[in-house]
Amino acid sequence: MSKTSRAAGGGAFDLEEAVAVLERTPEVLRRLLDGLPAAWTEASEGEGTWSAYDIVGHLIHGERTDWMSRARRILEHGPALPFEPFDRFAQFEESGGRPLAALLDELEELRRENLAALAALELGERELDLEGTHPELGRVTLRQLLATWAVHDLSHVRQIARVMAKRYAGEVGVWAEYLPVLGERLEGS
To answer: What is the pTM of this model?
Structure first.
């Protein structure tokens, strides 16, 4: 496959490559957010949207209840026992009022534990092709779940950068036309 087609979105899933992204996310977020004024970390794109603080809480909730619990469910039960529904808004209750530095510490620790547990599974191609049942999407494979975990991280890193950039959307003046991040549409949080 050429570099051009890979860049356009055509890469085969590779567990080691996915883990390389997953293990870096907590440090990327720490370097970006730790110690910033709340004006940066608590800014959102408006009513019903998430701040960087909210997104870190969301990632923590996923570490606790989503990725590895679903991977284990696939390995233990296959498609017979559907995944528990994921509460995309649990962070508002679970993380509310806690310092961002504490949330970043928790994300780092949970991710380290989850990646160690993932490595201990010693997954091969056979296991990656096993299926589970998502409560809304139906049949999914373990490979798809793990690929989604990595892309989910990247999606939220991008979301954090977009939210932070839009804080100064009205201040950049005519340079706005050179800053596509300011024109990106709001996505579902």
So the answer is: 0.90
DSSP-derived secondary structure letter, 98: S
When computed from its CA atoms, the radius of gyration of the chain, rounded to whole angstroms, is 18
Sign of CA dihedral 34, 147, 114, 50: positive
**157, 180, 56, 39: which is closest to 111 by C-alpha?**
56
Burial environment of residue 99 by CB neighbours within 10 A (0 to 12, 13 to 18, 19 or more)? exposed
Contact between 176 and 184 under an 8 Å Cβ cutoff? The reply is no
Among 92, 117, 95, which residue's Cα sits nearest to residue 106?
95
Separation between Cα atoms, residue 71 and residue 185, nearest integer Å: 32
Helix then strand then coil, % of the chain, to nearest 5: 65, 5, 30
Rounded CA gap, 147 and 12, in Å? 10
3-state secondary structure 26-62: HHHHHHHHCCCCHHHHCCCCCCCCCCHHHHHHHHHHH
98-123: pLDDT as tens digits: 999 999 999 999 999 999 999 999 99
